[in-house]
Amino acid sequence: MRSPGSSSCPSDTPRVAAGEFYDYTARYGAMRDGDDKTLGERFDEILQEERVHMSEHTPGDGQHPGLIEEREYRELLESLGLTPLLSVPLIALSNGQTRRARIARAILRRPDIILLDEPLTGLDIESRDRLVHLLQSFKTSTTYSPSILSSYRLQEVVDHLHGSLKDVAPAFVSHIAFLEKDTFWAGPRDEFFGDFVKRHFKEGNTEVWANGFGTGSAGTPKGWKTREDAPLVVDLQGVNVVYQGKRKILDQISWQIRQGDRWHLKGQNGSGKTTLLSLITGDHPQSYVQKHLLLPPTFSPTSPQGFTPTLAHRKRIPTPVLKSSIGVLSPELFDAFPRREPGMSVWDAVQTGFGGVFVPAGEGVGMASVDDIFEDGKRDEVREWRVKRCWEVLEALGPNSWADKQVSQTPGEGASEATEAFAARPITSLTQGEQRVVLLMRALVGRAPLVILDEVWSGMEEGMINAVKAYFKSGRAFGDHQAVVVVTHWEEEVPWTREEGLQSFRLEKGYGKTE
Ligand SMILES: Nc1ncnc2c1ncn2[C@@H]1O[C@H](COP(=O)(O)OP(=O)(O)OP(=O)(O)O)[C@@H](O)[C@H]1O
User: Fold this and answer.
1) Mean pLDDT value of segment 362-384
2) Model's pTM, two decimal places?
3) Which end of the chain has less Cβ packing within 10 Å, N or C?
């Protein structure tokens, strides 16, 4: 019998765990039988399950908290912005929409305790406000008032953007438990901000602020006089995506991405960011039918010089070539990456980034592909560069950079013991945050002409976030020939400023515009 006591909303891998969304490319293709269950139908099923569960118990026996009333159900959907999505198949929901649906599902069952793991991650600003408002309303509700246990990253609780200690914790939070390495503190919110935060961050723990974005040197050195001189990496003109002949998601989008560019792709949940990026990565079937969708066709095997910036239409680029031209980390990729592949180590996972593949290809640096692709004279050089590059990213983002205060070695001088041990670990033995860092290494390792970083910080611990920020700021993470697109709903997570050359592309109601 299920426990009526609590319900939770895990921060990630929800689609896999729930069996509701298992293959991230499936959502772009034709729906298969069983894929077309709508959000409304799923909620109806849950309510029916609750009715059955209630009928098996007498009221007051403590085994069920009572069915949600019709009016409250409607209000719940409304307050999470789900009403217009009831007729949408589960598989077609965007990330933020899925997260909101999962939170509603948890609340529908009216548990006594709700566990929320980083509930604001992946939500746009409006949805974050709506959720906080909903959780706040439970405090004064006479019909349903659950206890809420919710985890947040420090930046969602303390004003991180400005490096200040201002309390920005969501309004409904009354008590805070703080966990960091060997420090544990728990108590009322006022005491946390009144005393603990100030004391804790004064006592030598200031690096959490010092490494924030906005410090250090610019990360966008460029070898071109003006941006327009830089070669194109992606060229989209008048791109459209329509579903079922009527749902227009992208309407005449034109976007040019050039070498050295740093882009922030913006837009509310469901505005089409993932769809647009899936056209660029070639995962979306409609990428083949676009009139003008030019993508980077060339391997970038050894160095920036190895890249020839000649664009080609999606139809003309073999998928493996396109995959090796674009480094990606996204929630979809995180869910789909086959980390349970028997024996897959960190090293194996990182090196799949050279080909943008999921399965390690052979021995060593997985360079079966090297033999296939490169001529005799070039193979050794390619192998050598790839091995060196794997160690570089492992050193830069491995445990030396976030686990404790050890000073990491200069990249290229060989890997430290901690890094070697980390490289050998099975990826399944890592925490979720560690797995994210490894998949970020995978996206960066090939020095691909285009790197797409979609919500890369979610699930990472504070120390990891700071290590990644520091790496991006160091100028070593990206070469001049690389273009980077960052997707996040948090401005403070974007690693560059406008002064450093950052540009923004916003999607709204199907249209796209540069800001
Ligand atoms: N196969 C499909 N059929 C119908 N609609 C779809 C399909 N796939 C996606 N959509 C819709 O396309 C819209 C855009 O989704 P997309 O995932 O691109 O949004 P997003 O901007 O990435 O959102 P988020 O910020 O939540 O990640 C959503 O409203 C989604 O429901």
Assistant:
1) 61
2) 0.82
3) N
pLDDT in tens, 58-111: 655 555 556 788 888 999 999 999 999 999 889 889 989 999 999 999 898 888
Please enumerate in sequence order all residues whose Cβ is within 8 A of that of 404, keeping only pairs 6 or more positions apart, or say none.
none
Listed residue (240, 260, 236) closest to 250, CA to CA: 240
pLDDT for the residue numbered 280:
94
Tell me the H-state helices in 8-159.
Answer: 14-18, 39-55, 70-79, 95-108, 125-140
Domain ranges of the chain: 6-152, 260-269+301-307+315-514
Q: Do domains 6-152 and 260-269+301-307+315-514 have the same CATH topology?
A: yes
Ligand 1 site-directed mutation target among 271, 334, 508, most atoms within 8 Å of CB: 271
Q: Is residue 246 very low, low, confident or very high in pLDDT (cuts 50, 70, 90)? A: confident
Cα distances (angstroms) measured from residue 190 to each of 48, 194, 367 = 42, 6, 56
Domain 6-152 indexed as CATH 3.40.50.720: no
Query: What is the third-level CATH fold of 260-269+301-307+315-514?
Result: Rossmann fold (3.40.50)
Ligand 1 pocket (Cβ < 6 Å) reads 27, 88, 92-97, 243, 247, 249, 267, 269-275
* 359 φ/ψ sector (left φ>0, alpha ψ -120 to 50, else beta): beta
Q: With contact defined as beta carbons under 8 Å apart, do 367 and 324 qualify?
A: no
Cα separation, 7 vs 53, in Å, equals 15
Percent of all residues in the chain with a pLDDT value above 90, rounded to a whole number: 28
Q: Respond yes or no on whether ipTM tops 0.85.
A: yes
DSSP, res 426:
B
Ligand 1: atom nearest CA of 27 is 1
The number of the ligand 1 atom at minimal distance from the alpha carbon of 489 is 25
